[in-house]
């Protein structure tokens, strides 16, 4: 049973955020905080497997019936597992159960801007590449592609086998942005959250959502070392 109301507020055009069962729930938290901080509406789908990674990485049991409280606890955690980040207002979030294949994002006529899968498991990559639609996350991603809306796939696995590589190419061919959860070090990361925010920020860049999550390349070598003050 969905936690969302069936009739969207007039003019509401959310981003669908699909959280699948790859390691990297801090990436999802950072993207969610970034979208909400930018004033965007969000439709959230958390796969069954993602509940396992979330419990493993944060200790939080994500429950359909208590999604708002569980989401607030999750977004309050930094990448190091300690409380820290400011929790944004959650009124812009609509939650849909991953098993709810009648949910809004399962139809192309439901108004959304696009979708990000973060983190994206190789199973979700396969499901979307093959059009399996085995749950709402995969169905919403297939709908996003068929409607020619932006789809960003923040895949997290290493190493990658040939099957997944071919499926990632298929997603690219279909119009998705394949964005590996691959932090860079030129932005002067000091703490773990900086590396997470770099990936989240690149995902928001791909969606066209403004943010200040990482320090952009300025065209000058040495910036990263200057940002990390070792004195
Ligand atoms: C703790 C944990 C970590 C995992 N990490 C990854 C990962 O980094 N990448 C991946 O592709 N699968 C990972 N998996 C396996 C996926 O959860 C599994 O393939 C699952 O079927 C994905 O389902 P979903 O795509 O519906 O969420 C992990 C599983 C667990 C329990």
TrEMBL record:
<keyword id="KW-0637">Prenyltransferase</keyword>
<protein>
    <recommendedName>
        <fullName>Flavin prenyltransferase UbiX</fullName>
        <ecNumber>2.5.1.129</ecNumber>
    </recommendedName>
</protein>
<feature type="binding site">
    <location>
        <position position="47"/>
    </location>
    <ligand>
        <name>FMN</name>
    </ligand>
</feature>
<dbReference type="InterPro" id="IPR003382">
    <property type="entry name" value="Flavoprotein"/>
</dbReference>
<dbReference type="InterPro" id="IPR004507">
    <property type="entry name" value="UbiX-like"/>
</dbReference>
<keyword id="KW-0285">Flavoprotein</keyword>
<feature type="binding site">
    <location>
        <position position="202"/>
    </location>
    <ligand>
        <name>dimethylallyl phosphate</name>
    </ligand>
</feature>
<comment type="function">
    <text>Flavin prenyltransferase that catalyzes the synthesis of the prenylated FMN cofactor (prenyl-FMN) for 4-hydroxy-3-polyprenylbenzoic acid decarboxylase UbiD. The prenyltransferase is metal-independent and links a dimethylallyl moiety from dimethylallyl monophosphate (DMAP) to the flavin N5 and C6 atoms of FMN.</text>
</comment>
<comment type="similarity">
    <text>Belongs to the UbiX/PAD1 family.</text>
</comment>
<feature type="binding site">
    <location>
        <position position="186"/>
    </location>
    <ligand>
        <name>dimethylallyl phosphate</name>
    </ligand>
</feature>
<dbReference type="InterPro" id="IPR036551">
    <property type="entry name" value="Flavin_trans-like"/>
</dbReference>
<feature type="binding site">
    <location>
        <begin position="121"/>
        <end position="124"/>
    </location>
    <ligand>
        <name>FMN</name>
    </ligand>
</feature>
<feature type="binding site">
    <location>
        <begin position="21"/>
        <end position="23"/>
    </location>
    <ligand>
        <name>FMN</name>
    </ligand>
</feature>
<feature type="binding site">
    <location>
        <position position="156"/>
    </location>
    <ligand>
        <name>FMN</name>
    </ligand>
</feature>
<keyword id="KW-0808">Transferase</keyword>
<keyword id="KW-0288">FMN</keyword>
<feature type="domain" description="Flavoprotein">
    <location>
        <begin position="15"/>
        <end position="207"/>
    </location>
</feature>
<dbReference type="Pfam" id="PF02441">
    <property type="entry name" value="Flavoprotein"/>
</dbReference>
């Amino acid at each position: 049973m969905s936690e969302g109301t069936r009739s969207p507020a007039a003019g509401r055009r959310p981003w669908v955020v699909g959280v699948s069962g790859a390691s990297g729930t801090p990436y999802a938290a950072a993207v969610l905080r970034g979208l909400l901080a930018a004033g965007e509406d969000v439709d959230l789908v958390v796969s069954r497997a993602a509940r396992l990674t979330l419990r493993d990485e944060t200790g939080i049991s994500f429950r359909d019936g208590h999604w708002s409280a569980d989401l607030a606890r999750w977004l309050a955690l930094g990448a190091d597992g300690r409380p820290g980040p400011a929790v944004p207002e959650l009124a812009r979030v609509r939650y849909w159960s991953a098993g709810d294949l009648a949910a809004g994002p399962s139809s192309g006529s439901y108004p959304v801007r696009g979708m990000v899968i973060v983190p994206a498991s190789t199973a979700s990559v396969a499901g979307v590449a093959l059009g399996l639609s085995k749950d709402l996350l995969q169905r919403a991603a297939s709908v996003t592609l068929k409607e020619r809306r932006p789809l960003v796939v923040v895949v997290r696995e290493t190493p990658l086998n040939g099957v997944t590589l071919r499926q990632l190419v298929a997603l690219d061919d279909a119009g998705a942005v394949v964005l590996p959860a691959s932090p860079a070090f030129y932005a002067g990361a000091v703490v773990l959250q900086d590396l997470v925010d770099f990936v989240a920020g690149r995902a928001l860049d791909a969606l066209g959502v403004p943010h200040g999550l990482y320090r952009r390349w300025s065209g000058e070598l040495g910036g990263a070392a200057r940002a990390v003050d070792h004195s």
